[in-house]
Amino acid sequence: MHNLPRCRGWGWEIPCESSGEEWAAGQERQKANAPTSDPTKGFTSERAPEDRGARSAIRPVDRRDRGSSSQFWRWAGTAFSREASEQGGRGRGGPRWREGRSARGRARRAAFPGGFACPSLPPGSSERARERLPARAMALHVPKAPGFAQMLKEGAKHFSGLEEAVYRNIQACKELAQTTRTAYGPNGMNKMVINHLEKLFVTNDAATILRELEVQHPAAKMIVMASHMQEQEVGDGTNFVLVFAGALLELAEELLRIGLSVSEVIEGYEIACKKAHEILPDLVCCSAKNLRDVDEVSTLLHTSIMSKQYGNEVFLAKLIAQACVSIFPDSGHFNVDNIRVCKILGSGIYSSSVLHGMVFKKETEGDVTSVKNAKIAVYSCPFDGMITETKGTVLIKTAEELMNFSKGEENLMDSQVKAIADTGANVIVTGGKVADMALHYANKYNIMLVRLNSKWDLRRLCKTVGATALPRLTPPVLEEMGHCDSVYLSEVGDTQVVVFKHEKEDGAISTIVLRGSTDNLMDDIERAIDDGVNTFKVLTRDKRLVPGGGATEIELAKQITSYGETRPGLEQYAIKKFAEAFEAIPRALAENSGVKANEVISKLYAVHQEGNKNVGLDIEVFGEKKKKHYELSL
User: Fold this and answer.
1) In this structure, are residues 464 and 360 in contact, taking their beta carbons and an 8 Å threshold?
2) Does the predicted model carry a pTM greater than 0.70?
3) Quick one: pLDDT at residue 630?
């Protein structure tokens, strides 16, 4: 069967079924029958009687008979005249063909109800013939559906109604929540994520997973934004937001399918949320008493660290407690940026330590490697001499001129370094390059020289030692210099580090020197440290705590369900579903721990009905014993 394309040109359709071989045969017959020397000959759709069997057969006709305005199109070996079709003539361009009244037209339309595509020229056609093809013949206009969609630009999609919009969005959010649900809790699984830069992340931290996934779905992105806001405000609990939001939407879908409207579901959820805020103060089991006690703070930080580093929570909690307590100001305003982490590859996690001050993975520039009672001058400019903006050529004629050529520059640098040394400064920290001549005079006056490339490190160092960064190489005054108990070059593993140390535990910044066998492991531990530091910050604002292990969620579900039964309207169904959504938290803990979730939930409800509000899931004994779970969480 031949390919029967359709060409839309000046308002009529031109079917073509000739193949390349038939067209070539017709051309040979045309050359045999047509005069080759008369340029005034053209072609028409009328066929010679002897060539009626060939679709591509044509015979010559005088072009002058058609007039100068005649336009001839040749498609797949058959030529048509526009004027002939406009005058209502017979043939493939006439009104009978356009209206489908010809037998051949009806047969072809029945065989190809979907229409034809636009044809291409036969093999061997000249470029001139291709240029004669009208551009409009290749265009295909697809009309847009009426309504709101036709107001949007090309490629835009429009969904409406429950089936297309609401259920689709709920499904996307459920799938996102299911992705991070298996990473919830101490026994949650790590996720391996490779971002667009081909960087590998192995973690169970939901905030990191979502940040590297780059979610594009609009509805799912709203939950991602809520998780990011939770991380900014609290620093932990990002996975709780995802799991709880996914459960709320899943149960809302059930309400919509049984006939409740969207507004009724929203109203019931808002009522239940207000009730949960009223119940929470009654569930407080204890409060932090002394945030300057390292042992007490270490106990309070266990839960937030356990979810990231299960098994190492005791050691890491003590490290974080020491670092936080040492810089906790009397005003009570705690800044999480004052806890720094320096990751040094090698050894193990239990070789990590806390240092009151700052540690940089750098080496000293000069010969001096240790200074006691340091007076520090900080410069944000290069430690170099003054250089003119323009360059010139110097003609030296004698040896004496050669000896004196750079003597003036040397004397200037000597005087600058000597002026800095006369102020009492014995440590210089610069944010730019260090010239060899300047380094020579720094060694001459016994000054320790450290170079920091990062302006953020330079700013934090100024905060640590109480210095002011100077933009020019001028002698600092007493108020502009920083002070530190000791500055020394040390070796941790096989890495050289410069330590700015305060002996007293009242500095502005503390550093946790973190050791580990791999970079991915240290990155994951650093995220656990960030969660612990943010938990300490929350404790400085609100010292109340509630029991963990799903105890708080089960008690909220029990009381909100009882409250929903007292409501007379349709919102009671939404209130009960809101309470049921809290079961997703202990259910996720049980499933990730390998426990039968339904059995655990039923046992927890039974215990809470007896009045034991602080009983939760103990993953170490897999819920077999009824035990008060005082490993507290916020």
Assistant:
1) no
2) no
3) 35
